Amino acid sequence: MLKGEKLKKTFKTGILRSKTISVLNDVDIEIREGETVALIGESGSGKTTLGRVLLMLIKPDSGRVIFEGTDLTKLKRKELKKLRLKMQLIPQNPEDALNPRWKVYDSIAEPLKIHGMYEHERVVEIAKKVGLKREQLSRYPWQLSGGELQRVVIARALIVKPKFVVCDEPTSMLDLSTQATIIRLLMKLQKEMNTSYLFITHDFELAELIADRILEINSGKVKSKN
Questions:
Q1: Residue 21 · residue 216 · CB < 8 Å
Q2: Between helices 120-129 and 146-158, what is the axis angle to 10°?
Q3: With bands split at pLDDT 50, 70 and 90, how would you rate the model's confidence at 96?
Q4: How far is CA 46 from CA 32, 41, 51, 85, 222, in A?
Q5: Rg value, the chain, Cα
Q6: What pLDDT band is residue 226 in, cutting at 50, 70 and 90?
Q7: Which helix or strand (DSSP H or E) is residue 109 part of?
Q8: How far is it, in rounded angstroms, from Cα 30 to Cα 51?
Q9: Is the Cα torsion angle 130, 103, 112, 49 positive or negative in sign?
Q10: pLDDT digit string, tens, across residues 179-197
Q11: What is the pLDDT of residues 137-175, one digit of tens each?
Q12: Taking a C-beta distance cutoff of 8 angstroms, is the pair 157, 196 a contact?
């Protein structure tokens, strides 16, 4: 369903941006329909960068991202916008992803409005699926707990019924009991929607528990762990 081929990505660092750091170095990765691939690695190893490159939120320096037969690196912005319906991100820090001035309902409905697909019933339906109460939809992000905020960003990502979702350490900021609840929720919704996950985590035990395959990123390279 999705392939990354020979992906390279570097960043300039330093006060004068004179130093170049190689984050991805000829990375090949494939994610099949309906599966969960866990991507593990140390902090700063490039896990998040790879996830965002596959979503084309960051452009690779070279290489290709092929989604359902289409080379995304060759598409124009308007063409990529259409594919955003099929490719979504669940971020690590929901507080940074949600507009503090918007009520929860508006944040969840945003993707539908962007793509001219707004339906009140769909917002209510996905909120129920992720375990949010109706009264919580009228609250602001600061009025919700960490676990509730994570449900909000999950709802926002899945409301457009994507085929591919990057889960960028979606439970790392939560306590253990809430982590387990969110993981069960993600797995349940994946089965219902036949969605593919790239699940980014530093927790190898969690990766073993949820993933069909485990990949490790190290020194800009990706290799299989099972």
A1: no
A2: 130
A3: confident
A4: 21, 8, 9, 25, 10
A5: 17
A6: low
A7: helix 104-114
A8: 12
A9: negative
A10: 888 899 999 999 988 999 9
A11: 999 999 999 899 999 999 999 999 999 999 999 887 778
A12: no
Check if the beta carbon of residue 131 is closer than 8 Å to that of residue 164. no
Contact 4, 11 (CB under 8 A): no
Read off the tokens for 160: 């457009």
Secondary structure element (H or E) that encloses residue 137, with its range: none
Q: How many CA atoms lie within 13 A of 3 on its CB side?
A: 10
Count of positions (residues) in the chain:
226
Residue linked to tokens 């457009």: 160
Average pLDDT value for residue range 5-32:
87
d(CA 151, CA 155): 6
pLDDT per position as a tens digit, 118-127: 999 999 999 9
Q: What is the DSSP secondary structure assignment for residue 144, as one 8-state letter? A: S
Number of H helices, E strands in the chain: 8, 10
Q: Six-digit token pair at 1?
A: 């369903």
Which amino acid would we find at residue 135? E
As a whole number of angstroms, the distance between CA 202 and CA 205 comes to 9
- Residue 36 pLDDT level (bands cut at 50, 70, 90): very high
Please check whether residue 216 is in contact with residue 204, taking contact to mean a CB–CB distance below 8 angstroms. Answer: no
Which amino acid is located at 193 in the chain? M
Q: What angle do CA 54, 55, 60 make, to 5 degrees?
A: 55
The single residue listed with the structure tokens 């979702």 is 165
